[in-house]
Structure formats: structure tokens, C-alpha cells
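U., I forgot to send this yesterday:
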Amino acid sequence: MKKISYGVLALFVLLGLTACIPIPNPKAGKTGSSERHSKVTTVTETTTETTTSEAAVTTDKYKYTQESDGIQQEILVSLTYKGTEYQSFKIDMTHTFSEEQQAQMRALDPATVQEVLGEYLNEEPGMSDLTGIEGVSLTSSLTEDYKWLVSITIDAKKTDFERLAQVEGFALDFTEVKNMSPKLFGLSLRIYGFEEVKE
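Result:
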């Protein structure tokens, strides 16, 4: 981005205007060899300063909560970008089970519960396709208080968005997302009921 010093610009304008104004000759109207002529030479100097500022990496977060079959699900979308260029998307889903479901889980070994939940996740449409795409990772874990955490991380620089858009059961159409600015994508999430998380 180029900036012109305002002092120099004002001086340039002032000198330009004065060069256009005729200078009165006190001896005008007199004839003879004693007549003087005035000549004004204007010299202008313009300074330009070039500054480059690199866009900062920003992360915006949006949250949505829903309940189904006694399971409360909180979805947190973290959108990281630099200027208008996407860096990554992270989708964290926290499943809070009903007290009855938690009691059934506590009767089992936590490793067994984690294994069962992992199998359930793998049977979901498109999950195996999702993990087969470069730049996409999927993790799941069970907390001590029996909340099930599922995280999908998408590296926007490595991931083929066209291929990602073909994954069955994945709610976001990334062919559209990649053509949106990060701010517009955030606005679309808010339109669909997500709340922006301010930190």
C-alpha cells in the first residue's frame, strides 16, 4: 500500500496553484529598457512511502446446540484464516448423554465404551471416505464424565474441496465454502442458527 506524505502533498498543491497565478509586475505599463520580467520556477518533490502489512491469522468460532434422543450435541466450528485465505476448519462435536445412558456406560469398562463409540462412528455414512482425504483428520475420545468428543480437522491448504464435497452425510458443501470469504461463511453459519463465540 502506498502512502503519500500529506505535508508534501499540501506543499505540492500550494506550489502548483501559485505557479498558475500571474505575478503582478510593479513596473507594468512602463516602456523602455528598464522593464523587468519575473519568472517563477516551481520545483516539487513528492515522497512515497511503501508499507506492506501482512494479514494476521484469525480464528473465529461458532457454536450450535441441539438435542436428539436424549443426547445433547454441541457443535463448535473454528474457522482459521489469513486475510481472505482459509487456513483450517475444525469441527468439534461434544455429545452429552442422558443420565440413563451414562449409567449404562458406567457399567462397562471405559475402553469398551470408547471402542463401541468408535465402531458406531465408522459405520456413519461417509466417515471412512472423510478420513481417506489428505489434510483431513478425525479423532474421537471419551471424557471421564462420559462425554463423547468427536473432532474433524481440515487443513484448507492440503485438502481437495471438490472431493470433500462428495462425502456422503457431510453437512457442509465445501465447493461453495471455498468461494466464500471467511466473513461471509461466518455470516452463513449465523443465519443457520450458530452463535459466534467471543473470546
